[in-house]
Specification:
The protein is of the alpha/beta class. The chain is built from 12 helices and 19 strands. The strands form 3 sheets. Strands 1, 2, 3, 4, 5, 16, 17, 18 and 19 form a 9-stranded mixed beta sheet that branches. It is globular, with a radius of gyration of 21 Å. The protein binds N-(aminocarbonyl)-beta-alanine and zinc ion (ZN) (2 copies).
Length: 475
């Protein structure tokens, strides 16, 4: 049952945005925040006592894969289970990848993705397009029209040869279209051609175990592709966002580009701070749980990534939630690591893991956590200032976060359908207590109470443009 709220007062919380940290009350009327101040003298239909709690903007996950066909199967979380899981973790909006099938128009691909979400959505969502085929001019022309529909970012894959990979000409032409039409280009930066050679050599040697997934995708090939994409974007004049950055070899070119003032941003994902290449070597095919691309790296990269997010070499942390069951989906690759579907779960765990190991353990500030999980994703993906902060006029997407609440992360208790958790058994201190989407309570005292259908598609603004706080969210 969802608890619709016409007016709601959140009393005495510690409001934390990317910039501020102060005690105040927040008054919500309908879907928006209408007043913020000390000891507000208003009457509301419901009051939530947030004393001793942080009040955070709803987190935004800019990188998810729900109900996506991939690797010979389909990701296990659909929009209902994936978004329910997201809500429990304090995420109130995400941008999912709509995959263009070979030969498909973008309109066809988008039609299919809208159908997947319709009636199921619990949180708000947008779509990026995963561009796989712009062989004819007509498709490039269609690409240029996507921002008119609120699709203002697209990803191109420099890896997954013969599946999703595009060549440099396609990448470059898409960048030119983005530069002219106000879109943000995202890249999966790994050199797919070289990986393909290494994979064939490994299989010829009989190296079939999950660890060879990581050994055939070395960090240098991520660094090379990252640098190539940066240089191509510079020539094309398009902004560039490098997704799921894992290692020093890729952080360094992004850091250099940013120091020079180029329009380049990078994201990493929760799992890359905590998992390492050693996890893929676990016995009994357990290693398959950690098969995603780019792969988990040598653990010396954990500090590289914490440093990168602290210093804004990397500007966002996503989950790349792309969940497959271990039993029945990951096991497709029992005799050949190339048949293990690539991806892992995590949509529910990001805020708790980053708060505990990032903020509590002193690696990043509370403000920076909000910036990385909410404000920067909102700004980069055309959702700001409607979302990604706490301000008068913004959507009342709010997380009442109890910094003392303890939880043990586990597949037994998470809301994803995935049969494993990347952080199984990890104890965290700090968790969402209540989560609100546009004033509607989705999570009440840690329990999911939202009804499918509460979430809406968001037409995002063009790159660099604001999403008006007065404008309606379309459905
Ligand atoms: O292994 C991964 N990351 N699966 C999802 C697809 C992608 O490359 O983001
Ligand atoms: Zn990718
Ligand atoms: Zn992904």
């Amino acid at each position: 049952m969802s608890l619709l709220s016409q007016s709601l007062l959140i009393r005495g919380g510690r409001i934390v945005t990317a910039a501020d940290d102060y005690l105040a009350d927040v008054f919500v009327e309908g879907e928006r925040i209408s007043l913020i101040g000390a000891d507000l003298d208003v009457s509301a239909e419901r009051t939530i006592d947030a004393s001793g709690r942080y009040l955070l903007p709803g987190c935004i996950d800019p990188h998810t894969h729900l109900d996506m066909p991939f690797g010979g199967t389909v990701t296990i979380d659909d929009f209902e289970s994936g978004q329910g899981s997201a809500a429990c973790g304090g995420t109130t909006c995400h941008v999912d990848f709509c995959i263009q099938g070979k030969g498909q128009t973008f309109a066809e691909a988008l039609g299919a993705w809208h159908a997947k979400a319709n009636g199921k959505a619990i949180i708000d969502y947008g779509f990026h397009i995963a561009v796989t085929d712009v062989a004819d001019e007509e498709r490039l022309e269609e690409l240029a029209t996507l921002p008119e529909q609120g699709i203002t970012s697209y990803k191109l894959f420099m890896a997954y040869k013969n599946v999703l990979q595009v060549d440099d000409e396609t990448l470059f032409r898409a960048m030119e279209v983005a530069a002219a039409s106000g879109a943000l280009v995202m890249v999966h930066a790994e050199n797919g051609d070289a990986i393909d050679v290494l994979v064939r050599e490994a299989l010829a040697r009989g190296d079939i175990a999950p660890i060879h997934h990581a050994l055939t995708r070395p960090p240098e090939l991520e660094g090379e592709a990252t640098n190539r994409a940066i240089q191509l974007a510079r020539i094309a004049g398009s902004p560039l966002y490098v997704v799921h950055v894992t290692c020093r070899e890729a952080v360094e070119p992004i850091r250099r580009a940013r120091e020079r003032g180029w329009n380049v941003w990078g994201e990493t994902c929760t799992q890359y701070f905590f998992r390492s290449i050693d996890d893929l070597a676990q016995p009994g095919f357990e290693g398959a749980k950690y098969v995603y691309s780019p792969p988990a790296r040598d653990s010396s990269n954990h500090d590289v990534l914490w440093d990168a997010v602290r210093t804004d070499a990397l500007s966002a942390i996503s989950t790349d939630h792309c969940a497959f069951l271990w039993d029945g989906q990951k096991t497709l690759g029992q005799d050949d690591f190339t048949k293990i579907p690539n991806g892992g779960p995590g949509l529910e765990d990001r805020l708790k893991m980053i708060h505990h190991f990032g903020v509590r353990e002193g690696r990043i500030s509370l403000n920076r956590m909000v910036d990385l999980l909410a404000t920067q994703p909102a700004k980069l993906f055309g959702l700001y200032p409607r979302k990604g902060t706490i301000a008068v006029g913004a959507d009342a997407d709010l997380v009442v976060f109890d910094p003392q609440r303890t939880q043990t992360l586990s597949a037994a208790t998470h809301h994803s359908k995935c049969d494993y958790n990347l952080y199984e058994g990890t104890e965290v201190v700090g968790a969402p207590e209540h989560v609100l989407l546009r004033g509607t309570v989705l999570v009440e005292d840690g329990e999911l109470v939202a009804a499918p259908g509460t979430g809406r598609f968001v037409r995002r603004a063009r790159f660099g443009e604001p999403l008006e706080t007065g404008a309606a969210v379309s459905s």
